[in-house]
Amino acid sequence: MRCKDKKIWPKQNKFSDFQFVTFECARRLSFSVLADLLKLRTFETLNEDVMFRLNTLLMGKILSPIILSLFLSFSVFSQNVWTLEDCVEYALDNNLDIQKQIQSVESNRVTLLQSGLGMLPNLNLSASNIWNTGQTIDQYTNTFATNTVRSNNFNISSNVTLFNGMQKFNALKRNQIELMASRYDLDVLKNDISLAVAGYYLDILFNKEILDVAEGQLAITTEQVERIRKMVDAGAAAQGDLLNIQAQASTEELATIEARNRLNISYLSLQQLIDLTVSSDFDIEKPMLKEVAPPKELVTAETIYNHALTTRPEIKSAELRVESANKGLSIARGGQSPSLTFGGSYGTGYSGAARSVDASIPPVIKDYPIGITQLTRDTVLGYQSTYSYKTKSFSDQWNDNDNFSVGFNLYIPIFNGWQVRSGITQAKIQRNIAELDLEQRKRTLQKTIEQSYADAVAALQKYNSATQKVKAQEESFKYTGQKFDVGMVTSYDYNNSKKELTSAQSELLQAKFDFIFKTTILDFYMGNPISISQN
Length: 535
Fold this sequence. Notes:
single chain, alpha+beta, four-stranded antiparallel beta sheet, 15% strand, elongated
């Protein structure tokens, strides 16, 4: 993991004035060679060929102090040291559960927007182009058409709900509540991950100190092995004492290996938790931890719980879900109310069967007998004009066929298979579930705070007791060592005293880190940011 991938520099020392000056001198003397050098991730990866080029091109003795300074400077930056804040920030940016919850929040935002727009009048435009073959009644001429007829229909309509039992308004309010609740759910997820990161971070620090204790005890025993071996060679100590000390050294060497393995596993666990690619270069900063001492102001578990009830996102989310369930019940009850809508439309069309007289062609006039006169018995002729027809133009039909409509629609539900009543019953059940979930979260929060408070008190008491025990065991071990040196006690007694000291030191460390973690949880429930360092 490079620093640039993290977008922040690891917390490291800056260049000293001397290092800065030497770096500037080296840059000016051989910029091209240093450019090649800077392309490498760390100076530890330099191979022999590159080293030979450096020694040759940078004139060895002249620039060797400068190169040495650069090695020291960049080796600092090559380390990848993470603070607790870095780990938390990286976890929040890369955790997939958080990314999914962010998408859920966005989905609720879109739903809210849609419910608001759904209260506006709708506006729709429709058009059609139809060919009909066979006998049919043309909708515009109201005559039988037997030929293939093309027709067009155009319509624009709008409709708005004036009243529907406040269902749309309550749906809008419910979606607002759901959006706020989903945001609190995101905060809950971030808080859980942040606390988990703090716990794993402390676990690394704890295992580091356990490893230091194990290595320290092994170093002492190793010195004793060498001293007893010399005494055995001189005839001042028995061979059995040397064997006992060597067995103790082997045991402590195994304990050191196990402690190192636990530390490596804790490194692995933290990297996996924050979704970081596992790397052996990963390391964390060791902060100045909180003081293991009672708080300056007396704070009870009840005080912390009362404060958490008003601030914790999991409680606010559950409270909002109860409000959302109440709105859902109002929506279900709205199904019992009549609904009133207002709408209007405009339409027109075209038909290939609509025809009109073609004025450009004179009519054909024909006569035919229609009767005779009574006196003269002359034939009376009638005249019939035969006109030529053409299909009405599109523009003429657009105006001739247009129509408007406007009106109100009232819908009164009477019986719909008991759907409305069933919906109301289901909404009441969902409200009861939401109320039970709120109560459950309150109880869980109270139990967590009470347990953390009791654990913190117990850890403080254990720490104070373990501190005294370590002091007593250190004096006892020191005294036993002095007696062992003069042969007043056996190596068995010496090893037992050393084991008791190691056990006391381990108990002290366990109480220390347990107290820090539990008080961190309590501080977090009081609304303070996650921190394991002294203020």
